[in-house]
Amino acid sequence: MAATVLSMDEIINAVCLHMAERKAVKVTEVQVELSWDEDTGYSAEVWIQGRSQYLVESNLVEAIIRYMLSEYGIRAFREDVLLEVDEEITAVVTVA
């Protein structure tokens, strides 16, 4: 099995691309802040055109799956994506 590790910057890019497409705005109009909390897990706050929206872990995984396909040509599924936090948040994508 091959594993691809996405940095925090790549996860942010994935969320920016995903939200820009969903909201029909330019990628440059999307701002993202990732976070991890012991009680709530992984999340992101997204700002688009002055409005704030929170994304939960499943939303982040969805954005990562789409990013893997569009940027790496790798078809991944939910069970292939593992979010981890050490010094920063990373995503490990393992596909057969």
Written account of the structure:
It is a single chain. By secondary structure, the protein is of the alpha+beta class. The protein has one domain (2-95). 33% of the residues lie in helices and 41% in strands. The protein contains two helices and six strands; from the N terminus they run E-H-E-E-E-H-E-E. The strands form two sheets. The chain has a three-stranded antiparallel β-sheet. The protein has a three-stranded antiparallel β-sheet with strand order 2-3-4. Helix 1 (8-23) packs across helix 2. The longest helix is centred in the N-terminal third of the chain and has 16 residues, at 8-23. The termini are close together. The relative contact order is 0.24. InterPro entries: Uncharacterised_YxcD.
Q: Major sheet: size, sense and barrel closure?
A: 3 strands, antiparallel
Order of helices and strands: EHEEEHEE
Please state the structural category. alpha+beta
Number of alpha- plus pi-helical segments: 2
Rg estimate, integer Å: 13 Å
Mean pLDDT: 95
Strand content: 35-45%
Taking the alpha carbons of the first and last residues, their distance comes to: 5 Å
Please bin the fraction of helical residues: 25-40%
- List the domain count as a whole number: 1
**Poorly predicted ranges (pLDDT <50, ≥5 residues)?**
none
The shape, in one word, is globular
Number of strands: 6
* Spatial arrangement of strands, main beta sheet: 1-6-5
